[in-house]
Amino acid sequence: MAHQAGGQRPTPRPPVFETPEAQAYLEDYAVFLNAVPFPSLVVDHRWDVLLANAAFRTLFRDVEPHPTAMPGDNFLRFVLFHPDAPTVLGEHESSWCLPMLAHFAKAVERDGHDHGLQAIRRDIAQDPIMEAAYRQGLPHWIRAVGEQAAEHDGAVRPLRHPDPRWGVTDCRLVVETTRILEGMDCTRLTLVLRETRRAPSRRRGHRRAASHLSVVSAVD
Prior knowledge:
Number of helices: 9
Strand order of the largest sheet: 2-1-5-4-3
Order of helices and strands: HEEHHHHHHEEHEH
Oligomer: single chain
C-alpha cells in the first residue's frame, strides 16, 4: 500500500546527542521505524521531530510548505500553527489542538526555562486564536472533559489520509519509549490506522479560519 514503509531511509535530524553510541542507536532505530507500516515518529520534549518514517511522510505529503510549522520539523507547531493541519487531522480543535495545548502546558510547568518551549509560548501569545485557546478555552475544556482527555497514549482520533484506500478514518495513538530513548528525553508516537471508516464531516478538511475557536466562544 502507498502508506506503507518503503523508499528513502529516514535520516536522524542534525546531531543533538554527541556520543557515537547515541548516534548509532538512532540510525539503527531509523531502520526499525521505517519498517513500521503506520505513521510513526520520534520526538523530544519540545516535539521536535528526530525521526519520521515513510508512512508519516505519506500522511502529510499534501501539506503546503510553512516556514516554522512543518510536521516533520516540530509536530506541536504543525498542529497549532499550520493552516493545513485541519485538512489531515480530523476534528482538529477538540481531538488534536486542545490535547496538544494541554500537553504543552504541562511541559511549560515542568521545564519552563527551556528556550525551545519558551519560543513556542511566544508564538502562541502572538497568535490571537491560540492565545485565547490557551488561556480561556483550555481550562474550560479540561473542566468539561477531564484531564485524561489530554493523554495521547491510547487516544483514538480522526484523520484524513491522502491514500483513498484509507480516506477519512481513525487512528489510535500509541506512545512508547525505550530505555535509551527515555535517557534522551524522547518518545515515539505511532498513529495506528484503523480499518473502520468514518462518515465525512463538513467541518473536516478545511483550513483554519482566522476566527476564534469554538471552545473559546463557549466561555466568552
